[in-house]
From TrEMBL:
Reactions this protein catalyses: L-seryl-[EGF-like domain protein] + UDP-alpha-D-xylose = 3-O-(beta-D-xylosyl)-L-seryl-[EGF-like domain protein] + UDP + H(+); L-seryl-[EGF-like domain protein] + UDP-alpha-D-glucose = 3-O-(beta-D-glucosyl)-L-seryl-[EGF-like domain protein] + UDP + H(+)
GO cellular component, as recorded: endomembrane system
Protein name stated in the entry: Protein O-glucosyltransferase 3
Signal peptide segment: none
């Protein structure tokens, strides 16, 4: 039973303004009178959380659902910004009207929303904020087959061998802009690769310019053991050489958490209670979507999308021979340009002011 509030623990990336994610989140750990972590739930409605702008005159669009009870004495609080908190945020966590841990927490602004195009110019700073590992074992294993990547050969070989195999997207990221052309008949799923690449370029300057192919079909492509070409895919196998990304379903749900999807890598942490009647009576028919995300949660975390893509981009850049190019038949994949993307990027303002001063 929870008997103290000051000894509770609150931590997570959602308390750092520089960790820009579609949905920010942090954890609350309940403790007992001895200061020991509870290992069972004290009740799903134990904690109340209120988040607002530090500027009382600022209208802030934000969605803050109740904390998710993880069933082990800890809670997950998620919140999604739909506008930028320019001065910052005030986060209040309470238990029976008593402040929890060091609440209230102040997050100095600006705190940008997901669609604000305001990339961090220093990639190393972004990697530190995102707590990127030095290396990813899966990515290292996938790239063993590609010590060097001849771009000229890649541009000839991939269309020749695979353009009739379903759906391929040829991408180039040049000066942090995303360009693409489509190959094959079934390329509608490019929307999923588009959105994660755009999301990444909104968050960090992708110092390396890169050129690559993504397979948006349902089956890996490259079966050669020698002279293989690198293709990024959402699927792989032990007898293919495709470089595996998190699936399009994980990609889309990560970007649409608290917006357009029901299950994602965060929500499944609290979806551990009773099933609806059909599943309760026939547990063998439990929701495949829920099982899928529960399994993915064991293998991935909410940051994995950005970390994987950033490291893959770096590995590609280090191995590529030749100049990544925006080809004539490629089109720009634009960032959103509507009310959902409205924001004032103070990094850009600072950069423009610095450039003017340098010119003077």
């Amino acid at each position: 039973m929870l008997t103290t509030t000051k000894e509770c623990l609150i931590w997570g990336p959602g308390l750092n303004p520089d960790t820009v994610l579609p949905v920010r989140y942090f954890f609350i750990q309940a403790v007992d009178s001895k200061g020991e972590n509870l290992t069972l739930s004290p009740g799903k409605d134990t904690f109340k959380v209120k988040i607002g702008s530090l500027d009382t005159n600022e209208y802030l669009r934000i969605h803050v659902p109740p904390p998710l009870d993880r069933g082990d004495g800890s809670f997950l609080l998620r919140y999604r910004l739909y506008s930028t908190a320019h001065k910052g945020l005030k986060i209040q966590v309470s238990y029976k009207d008593a402040a929890v841990a060091n609440s209230p927490y102040t997050i100095q602004g600006p705190v940008h929303h997901e669609y604000c195009d305001c990339p961090e110019p220093d990639a190393s700073v972004w990697q530190s904020v995102m707590q990127c590992p030095a290396d990813d074992r899966q990515i290292l294993d996938d790239f063993k087959s590609f010590p060097t990547i001849d771009l000229q050969h890649l541009r000839q070989e991939v269309p020749h061998r695979f353009s009739n195999r379903g759906g391929l997207i040829h991408y180039a990221i040049i000066n942090n802009h995303v360009y693409r052309r489509t190959l094959g008949k079934y390329t509608d799923f490019k929307m999923f690769s588009d959105e994660i690449l755009l999301s990444l370029t909104r968050k960090v300057e992708l110092v390396p310019d890169v050129e690559f192919y993504i397979n948006v079909g349902d089956w890996p492509l490259e079966t050669k053991t020698s002279a293989a070409v690198p293709i990024l895919s959402w699927c792989g196998s032990t007898d293919t050489r495709d470089i595996v990304l998190p699936t399009y379903e994980v990609t889309h749900s990560t970007l649409e958490t608290l917006r357009g999807v029901t299950n994602d890598l965060l929500s499944v942490q609290g979806n551990t209670g009773n099933f609806d009647t059909p599943e309760q009576n026939s547990p063998q028919f439990m929701s495949s979507s829920l099982v899928y995300f529960c399994l993915c949660y064991k293998l991935l975390n909410f940051l994995i999308e950005y970390l994987s893509l950033k490291e893959i981009a770096l590995k590609l850049q280090l191995r590529q021979t030749g100049q990544p190019t925006q080809h004539a038949d490629m089109e720009l994949v634009p960032q959103l340009d509507d009310h959902t993307a409205a924001c004032r990027c103070e990094r850009n303002s600072y950069k423009e002011e610095t450039d003017v001063k340098d010119e003077l």
